[in-house]
Amino acid sequence: MTRPMTRRMESRMESRMESQNEGQLGQASSLEATLPPAGLTVAAVARRIGVAPATLRTWDRRYGLGPTKHTQGSHRRYSEEDLARLTAMRRLIVAGVSPAEAAAQAMTFSGAPDFADERISTEFAGDLIALLKRACLSLDRAIVEDEIAAAISRDGVGATWSNVLVPLLKEVGDDWAKSGKGIEVEHMLSEIISRALAESSCKVTNPVNPTPVLLACVGEENHHLAISALAACLAQDSIQVQYLGARTPQVAINETVRRSVPPAIFLWAQLASNANRAFVDDLPSVRPTPRVILGGPGWNGVQCERAYVAHDLGSARIEIARAVGISSH
Asked: What domains lie within the chain, and their CATH numbers?
């Protein structure tokens, strides 16, 4: 369920306020790192232990691991003891303990937070993948949504997709293929990722290209997350797109090319059965000639002189940028 906008605004305000005092707070790299007398806000604690602010609020609501310092006329703040318990909670979850059990153990934890040895940072993709996978297996939608949103905000769509989401999807898919169980986990994760990417593909207000780039999944291709990730990356690059969605027939692609004359055409095929070079050969002739880019493992081994084969999201992004006149990316 979407949280009220006021909470999101509050989090952004907290982040700005805390960044002004970043030099005083330091990087919390040792046991000697001190907290301000008034304690830390949600945003500050989230940065120190490497989770989304919304995750901290979830832990507070579900397990009682919230801030305990009270200041007259202001929000509650986290004390050093609170920070130690949350650090222990984060470490236990990544180690494989269920959130409920980790919270129970963290509540009994005493001592100072040892950031030098025990700080868990989501900049390490493996830790984030492990956390997301366990949340998925528990069908903990809120944590999966919050952590993916935080990663995209922090690292960008491209890095989050390549380093976190692709490996995560592979692990979840492999588990289902081996055991025959967990199809609900894969569907939940795919829907969350799809929605997160859609939110990142908001309308480009000042696009560098007056005519949108054409994106389409060819044939009967239903695997659309990768092309959605590309669309979100291009939005970050101020490149507007016309995305025709999954299972786009040849006639829809051709009519869009005739009517709009896009600077680039990106055709996605996850499966080899959908990678028919006729989708390229039968494109209508228009001027100026669009740059045709093929993406997805389905195109491996397909010889097509009229198209460039992009082997990953990064290379597709670069080729499209060049097609719209951005010389460097």
From this structure: 5-118 (1.10.1660.10), 125-200 (1.10.1240.10), 213-323 (3.40.50.280)
- How far apart CA 116 and CA 30 sit, in angstroms, is 5
Give the start-end residues of each E strand in the chain.
Answer: 213-217, 241-243, 264-268, 291-295, 307-310
Strands 241-243 and 291-295: unpaired
Bridge partners of 294, per DSSP, are: 267, 309
Of residues 226 and 4, the one with the higher pLDDT is: 226
> Tokens for 158?
């491209």
Q: What is the pLDDT of residues 258-299, one digit of tens each?
A: 999 999 999 999 999 999 999 999 999 999 999 999 999 899
Q: Is there a contact between 227 and 268 (Cβ–Cβ < 8 Å)?
A: yes
The helix (H) or strand (E) run that includes residue 318 is helix 313-323
pLDDT exceeds 50 at position 176: yes
Report the chain's mean pLDDT, rounded to a whole number.
81
Residue 95's pLDDT is what? 57
* Residue among 211, 320, 314 nearest 264 (CA): 320
Token couple for 40: 């830390």
Q: Identify whether the C-beta of residue 216 lies closer than 8 Å to the C-beta of residue 292.
A: no
Mean pLDDT of 176-199: 94
DSSP assignment of 154-215? HH-HHHHIIIIIHHHHHHHHHHHHHHS--HHHHHHHHHHHHHHHHHHTPPPSS-S-SSPEEE
Q: Which residue has the tokens 């989501």?
A: 122
pTM: predicted TM-score of the whole model, two decimal places? 0.64
Tell me the C-alpha distance between 65 and 292, whole Å: 53
Where is 19: in which H helix or E strand? helix 5-20
